[in-house]
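Example record for the data management plan.
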Amino acid sequence: MRTPPHSIVPVLLLLFGAAGCQKPAKDQAAGGSGQGSGQTAARGSAGSGSGAAPAAAGSGSGSAAAPVEAKDIDSKDILARTETAPEVQVKHVLLAWNGMAAPRGLDPRAAKRSNGETATLAQDLATKLKANPDAIDDLIKQHSEDQGSVSSGEPYTVKTASRFVPEFKNLALRLKEKEVGIVKTQFGYHVIERVPPPPPDPLESADVMARPAETGGVFVQQVVISWKDTLLAKNGQADPRAKDRTKADADKLVKEVMEKARAPKADMAKLMKQYSEDPTSKDSARVDEITPDMPLNELFDNFKKLVLRLKADEVGAVKSPLGWHVVKRVPPPPPDPLESAAILKREPQTQSAKVKHILLGWTAVHAPGDTKGEKRDRAALDKLVKDTVGKLTKGAKIEPLMAALSADPGSATDGKSYDVTPTAGLVPPFKNLSLRLKVGEVGVVKSDFGIHIIQRVE
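Corresponding structural encoding:
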């Protein structure tokens, strides 16, 4: 049920998050309903948004490594500065060494290097970049062990509130444009260069993104169009249609889709099915809710920026590492008949709840890998939900029902509970219901993963 992950971007996306420098959110669960690893801007990988955080992919997964004795080659002169920028764009070369505790395993190159050799290499690369800052992309391709940045080729946006490890963020925010520095983190040495912000693409809706943002949630549908140089294509995971498509051809297609999406009574579901290359939404016509506090991978800042500025029925376009997003703001979807409408109309009962849940899918809506759900028709789902809620309201324990029925791999087998707060990185429907439940009460809500039967336990 965590977002980033399952309500904005293709499920494959955040498998290639900001490795090497980001860390999980403070309240992020390790699995089950954790922040997703793939939305067209931040979507969950299974169950109710389960999986690693969008920023937890590649060699720098965000898991803390054991302290390692290492040479101190940090750029202390830069780190000593008191002036920081509110937001910077940076690229970096990540270099680890033999003996580091790497949760996902060391890069083969790092496994052959001592700390001293790695420190020397980091200093050599920094010297080259100081002489020629434009060499950063070539040096990343040749040397960096952060597969997230190698694959995307995109800079990381670093802000004061960004979820990067502190050392990385502290140096990045103190760099001047085209300046280079070195800092050591639990993932290795980072040779970081601050780069100029990329110019906006002429097709992007710059006029929309210049407006003030909405303060509440915004509902959208989108068409994702990629080309051969995008992140998923480079990793062999793009839609077959994007495999040989050029950026110019993608731009032409985007213009065509935008024109159709802007037409009176445009059928976004039809456009999604015909054009979109997001496997998680193209056939379901899914409507995503994006909120200001939704934790998305920094690579998708512009996606969120656009969405929160769209007016009703307005269409905009923005780029991300996945390609083009043609986004239309739509009305909130009607409530599902199974949902606990009376509970959802209440004011929140608490600012901190502990809940357990049963996730049930059906043919139209189910979590990835939910083989039971993808075969279950709607009539069978309705009966199962009503029977299960009936058992719980009569006093049945939820844990055995979780094990027998739930499609959330992070909590089904062990009866795990989830902590819910207003700022938790959870998909909005799950969070909204959880905070309105009374202790012991049971409710039902629908998300992009299916139907959640939720019981508040504390």
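Summary line stored alongside the record: The two ends are 19 Å apart (CA to CA).
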